[in-house]
Hints:
34% helix, 29% strand, six-stranded antiparallel beta barrel, alpha+beta, globular, 3 helices
Amino acid sequence: MPKRFDQARPFTTLAIVALGWLLVPAAIKTFARASFFELTAPIVAAESHVRDLRDYWALRLHSQNDLIEAGRDLARVNASYALSVQRNNDLQAEIEGLETHLRLPPQPNFRYETARVIDRDFSAWWQRMTIRKGKNFGITVGAPVVFTDGVVGRIAEVYETTAVVDLISNPGVRLAAFFEGGDRPVSYQGGVNPAFGPARGVVEFVPLEIFVTDDAPKRLVTSGLGGEFPRGLTIGYVTHLEPSADGLFKNGTVQIDPRLSALTEVAVLVPEPNEAAPIR
Length: 280
């Protein structure tokens, strides 16, 4: 009997600790969690700096021919970006002219704040990553996070030098979207994803006249409604649709870009105040 009691003691202690934690007020839990995150953030950030240093010295060992070839590729990319920037400036000027002519309020401006990814949590529910910038760079909760080919997610928590990003595949992320080339809003939400499988989302309230197949998927983009994300950013590709339970709409699956799980750097769109458009 004493032996059985000793074996059961760890489980009894664990049960008492768990019960005690459930009785702790929510405010104290939140404070303890934030304090723990702030204490561990320097360690995770230091590990990220060490990885960057390791990658730097690895690149230094490349041959001169490799560096010349990389320089040529970079020059081609820069030339392409220069043309894109010029086109973007022309379109932006056209939009501002139309807003003034039609007396429409301007869309919110964003400042791109690039940040390194220092940690990832791809469990079935969380689908999160941590970046190496926070309040010290003006990042706020709810700010959109993007990369070169579309949406990464949005800022869920902000600390002094770090921030937590809910990925677009996170079940807690929901936003209005359009199918590319269309203007009828649909509802997108992150899905429950396996820890080691491809990330997916769910699209709802799709009009019945829209059809997709595996060979002919449709691109789902941000709608710009609500001002949270700029319009036209890629969310993913819809590969499957089926009628909803009431038969009035369709629901389907959205394939998320698999590169999200391997990103090393992202851009946070920090909102900046806009001056009111002149009314004439």
